[in-house]
Amino acid sequence: MSKRSSWALPYFIFLVLFVVLPLVLIVIYAFQDNSGHFTLSNIAKFFSDGDSLSTFALSIEVAIENTLLCILIGYPAAWILANKNLNRSAVTVVLFILPMWINALMRTLATAELFNMAGIPLGKGTLLFGMCYDYLPFMIYPIYNVLNKMDKSYAEAAQDLGATPGEVFRKVTLPLSMPGVISGVMMVFMPTVSTFAISEFLTNNKIKLFGTIIQENINNSMWNYDAALALIMLVIIGITTVLQGNDSEEAANGGII
Q1: Tens-digit pLDDT profile for residues 86-103
Q2: pTM for the complete prediction?
Q3: Integer angstrom CA distances of residue 96 from 101, 102, 140, 144, 150
């Protein structure tokens, strides 16, 4: 225990037991049948099942729409929060954190009840509202952190060279804030695809997302097919994470257009 590396041992054990081992089990179950024999039928079943493919396509559609909504609302909010002339109080930042102190399921149930009290029928519109409400802070804060730490001398130099406020934003602020936007997109897009509770409560289970299929397979003890679906999600997350890393590096090194 005298070595510093010894203090990392508990974290290493936790990582192996609760991160690596579950991922390994998912891969093993995905390529096994009920008898424990190797098979590719679970993966093939997803690509041949029209319901699963249509649900996956709908999940991607809802995730894109929710992500775009969060960007349209979140970027101006983050810009205002990071602008010292428009936001002089740290209390404003805390107001965006407060909803995250409440459990997401409780917020979703409260939102559904508000729609019921107002007589608004539950459907895709209420689903997008609830998704945007729940995931908006995850879009605002990565963008806010980047904008808040941005070197203001770039914008000042552009203004000294005769750039208009619109040009300063388009050619300086926006390119330099892209790492925050990309991080926000990742934190909103993938959870939206895999969620099931929000769609269940805000649509009365009329709209099923990819996470709902995984939940139903777990409830029906279809572990192998469910593991294959989870593996597909992991592959997509892995690919998008790699792309995010490349895009973030290019955005960070790209500088001013």
Answers
A1: 776 777 877 877 877 888
A2: 0.84
A3: 10, 12, 9, 11, 21
